[in-house]
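PROTOCOL LOG
Step 1. Enter all chains and additional molecules of the complex.
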Amino acid sequence: MSKLLNVRQAHVRYPLSGHLMARLTGNHQAWVNVVRGVSLAIDKGETLAVVGESGSGKTTLVMALMGLVPLQRGEVEFESKRILQGPRGRLKPDRRRVAMMFQDPVGSLSPRMTVRAALAEPFEIHAPEVKDTGAEVARLLDLVGLPVEFADRYPHQLSGGQARRIGVARALALDPALLIADEPTAGLDVSIQGDVLNLLSGLQKRLGLGIVIITHNLNIVRHVADHMAIMYLGQFVEQGTSEDIFRHPRHPYTKALLSANPNPDPDAQSARLDLAGEVPSLLNVPSGCEFHTRCPFVQTDCQESVPVSREAAPGHIFQCHYPLKED
Amino acid sequence: MSRAKLLRPDGLLISTWRKLRRDPLGMFGLIIVLLIGVLTVFAPWLAPYDPNEVDVYSRLLPPSGDHWLGTDQLGRDIYSRLLWGGRVAMKVSLLAISVSMAIGIALGMLAGYGPRWLDRILVVTFDTIRSFPTIMFALAIVALVGSSLNTVIVIIIIASIPIYGRVVRTQTLALRDRDFILAERAMGASTVRILFRHVMPNIAAPLFILASMDVPVVVGMEAGLSFLGLGVKPPTPSWGSILNDGYSYIRNSPWPIIAGGIPLILVTLGFTFFGESLRDIFDPKLRKKG
Amino acid sequence: MSCPPVLPVLEVDRLSVSYRTERGDLKALRNVSLQVPRGEIVGIVGESGCGKSTLISAMIRLLAPNAQLDSGEIRFRGEDLLSLDLESMRALRGDELAMVFQDPMTSLNPVLSIGRQMRDIQYRLKESKADKNARSMRMLEKVGIPDPQARLRDFPHQLSGGMRQRVAIAMALMMKPSLLIADEPTTALDATLEVQIIHQLKALQAEIGCSILFISHHLGVIAELCDHVVVMYAGEVVETGSVREIFHSPSHPYTRMLLACDPGGITERTKVLPIIRGFLPDLVDLPAGCVYRDRCDMATEACAEQKPELKDLDGRKVACLLTAESL
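Step 2. Run joint prediction.
Step 3. Record the structure below.
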């Protein structure tokens, strides 16, 4: 069965500026590897959540998929066709078929452009044959449940939730097959977070969209994503269906993340998995299993050898020498 | 989100005008700017005398009913000469500022948005030009090509490009990594489209302020060069040459030099107050929500 | 045996603050009353527009120039904070009254070393530099910073975000203040880091015996850390009570809906997440009656006419006509 999006061993790196950097860090690396071999696949009508904390590389991964930063190594197939790379290593996806929503809802809209102009942008760039952009703008506003009067508003006159919806509308303008959403609930009050997520899943049902959600908010992943992947220091440490992972996480980091977002209940027993220290710098990735410096169950071979990918159940993959047993 | 946001939004011009109205110094500046504009544009009709009309019997007269600001050493009416000199000043500043701003914007956006190596070359170029004392630079050019109004304009343009270029570069750099620019790139917008439809409108405000504050500087440069004899050739009136004349005859009468200084003071006050008021209006607005 | 009532460390008494704007007075706080008992942790829960920033600004006397105090008092250990002169206010800050903000760089001076800043806070003590450093190092250890001696020589930019926030907390609690005001201190941090810091904060509070006023919109953190909770909506206090009462049996419809919307509290996987419909009321042109009625699922006609007062209900306080009636 052909997948909507298929990524194999993606690597992204950033150059370290100048020789001074090399002297200071004591190593003569010219690059810092931010995404270190990521593979994922997603089908039409499915939602994949990429979960990770700061420094995991999750945003860099999708920026590379969108061609905003160069992809150093790896293959990406979209709708069964290989996406080609430009001269500077940037992927060139068909931007009418893949769309992205950025983290800052108001900040992703051009400050001096009205909502109408912002929604007409995709047409002006890719579909200049569409003369009546006004009709399209009205259709898009209706799609996201906003009254047509909003077309005259400027970004700074929108609330976070409204700006978020405009972002969705703009992303869906040309009827893409895949939508990438970077932290769609960031900056939104809890009482309206559900709004954007409900909107996305409703649209997914109607339009058969594939959705990739980048988030650090595990609480929403359970409800919104069919599949999830946990990212740490540039790699997926565990991936599978949300149900499998929530029920029985195998990797200690997954468990730590799950237990760090507790049920707000003052009496809840905290079956918390505490992690030691902080995320190591990408300039100094620990040897062997990169998580060993913080793992509460670390053993000697964790430091020495990199764990291989194992399958707990079909589609549920993890990398750990000593996976967690069911409790 | 409150219901207040459902009211119709105000356009940029209207809200700027409302805020300007409340700032007394800004309004004062605006009035002077408009006054200078009217006087210089309508100088041929407003000047009571021909600026070059010599009347040796009336030399170095103090201000009177006939000659509002007195006469200079050749009996020419200073008021009329100042009006016509104003035309020179305004012509130079409008032309010089528009051209240097246009070139500065183009180079600045290239530096801010383009590859790092291009940025480095442009920054070094800008800084090199800026580090030259303008007068030295002017002397060198004039020595090569002789003095004239056009030479003055070219000198000022070259000296001003780095100022606009630097500001545009900084603003472009700041915008480059903003989410909305990334969003445009993600949509597949071309670099040209991004620069003109998304970067330019967002850097326009500081540029207008800079241009407004630059007018007195340019006028001063022109006056200075003319004062030194490097600018317009006599008898064409220029504020600088009028000052020079007044300076030469200061022992005979103080009036010419005082009168010669007035327009420069007015231009500086007017444009600076107006520019600062604009800056106060735009700065907080750029940071806060509407 | 009955004990004489101990004066609460902080008491906000019917505080009303409004901002002068072009359209009229924006009534940001209306008759807000709350108490922080000695040695206890009180959490303020509320979403955007609830007035918590205005409340904090009023407490530390940093209100915007267009703010005006309409009525009320803020009593710190019995003294009215709002009428203190700036000299006395300065004497209080850092000694009896300490603060931690969302961005640690609000408290940290970028050009001074950590050691220097921590010594500066101890300026009132007549001790040697070595003694002051020793105290600083003990505090740094207590907040979980490894190798405190080396950290004293570091500058803020050399530390990660999480470390900086720990330092900010250490600095705030070093002089054992009576009250610590913490405004969203962990909101910008990753979840695993957040739980570590909350733990340390709780341990420190038990050791020092200070009171904490903790503002956050992370319900899980509030549930875990706080003894009492104050719920605010659109500039008013709608409910207060012990943390158990609020989370297990919320009385006010807003509190109920807020808890229902928190995805962490929803254990069953659901495709459609609950939200609170509607918008915040216009704070310049307030509607009559209850401020929450437009969004309330239980609103009656009386709610549009009569404004509910904060009434006692078995030791807690609720501002709702419907719950008062059912007493």
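Step 4. Note key features.
Chain A has one domain: 5-107+173-192+204-318.
The first strand of chain A starts at residue 5 and ends at 15.
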